[in-house]
Amino acid sequence: MKQVIAHVALVVPDYDAAIAFYCGRLGFDLVEDTELGDGKRWVLLRPKGATETALLLANADGERQRAAIGNQTGGRVGFFLFTDDFARDHAAMLAAGIAFLEEPRHEAYGTAAVFADPFDNRWDLLQPA
């Protein structure tokens, strides 16, 4: 998972569990973890080898932020995780017990398969064409 083209925001109910999942099972690096006070927290994660931040966990705005994320993804919280080697990363994620909701498919834009995280979000593992 080497290439990231955008920052992605995600609201999760348990930030420690999210950090453990993304860093432990998906191999992200923890870039920043800051308590902002009043129960607010800002966490930046990045796939190993990526040059941009891939995932922002932040609870600064609660329900408003959840609504904004849903609006940006057509009402479904969805994310893209870009890879330079789909077969390698798909196999590694399967070995780590990641549940894939859709089998790999070949589209004009690349190869993709949808997987789930423990927080009811769907991700596309995508190797652009």
Explain this structure to me?
The chain is an alpha/beta fold and 129 residues long. Helices cover 24% and strands 36% of the residues. It is built from three helices and eight strands; from the N terminus they run E-H-E-E-E-H-E-H-E-E-E. It has a four-stranded mixed β-sheet, covered by helices on one side. Strands 5-8-7-6 form a four-stranded mixed β-sheet, with helices on one face. A hairpin with a 2-residue loop joins strand 2 and strand 3. The longest helix has 11 residues, at 15-25. The chain is elongated. The mean pLDDT is 76.
Write down the overall mean pLDDT.
76
> Which class of secondary structure composition applies to the elements?
alpha/beta
What is the string of SSEs from the N terminus onward?
EHEEEHEHEEE
Please work out how many helical segments DSSP would assign. 3
Describe the sheet with the most strands. Answer: 4 strands, mixed
Short description:
By secondary structure, the protein is an alpha/beta fold. The chain has helices at 15-25, 63-72, 86-95; strands at residues 9-10, 28-37, 40-47, 55-58, 78-82, 105-107, 110-116, 122-128.
